[in-house]
Amino acid sequence: MLNSAKSALDTAKTELSTKIATKADASEVNKAIEDLNTVISNAESVNNAYADEKNAALKVELTKSISDSREEVNAAIEALSKRLEAVENETESLTDRLSDAEKSSDLLSQRLSATESKSNTLQPF
Hints:
The chain is mainly alpha-helical. It contains two helices and no strands.
């Protein structure tokens, strides 16, 4: 389509150049000018249709690319959310274990203190 329009333009320009170079009469030159203008108009229509078609294809491609990118972002957000949830669960578990360890430490301290008190109490005897 574009090649035939380009070919028609080249042919019409060559015909006009030939008419001018051979000093054809004014009516022949005017006819060649009219023909070239018609071919130019047709080529512009072909060019616009081609551009519209390509723009539509590019728009579809861009829309798909945007959609794919959004899906990737959503998947990344979901993965990060899952990782955050896992970290929160791990943190909660560690906090519980730390609390248990602190309680055990307190119990051991109390036992140690009680043992020392008992030992101190029994020492004079």
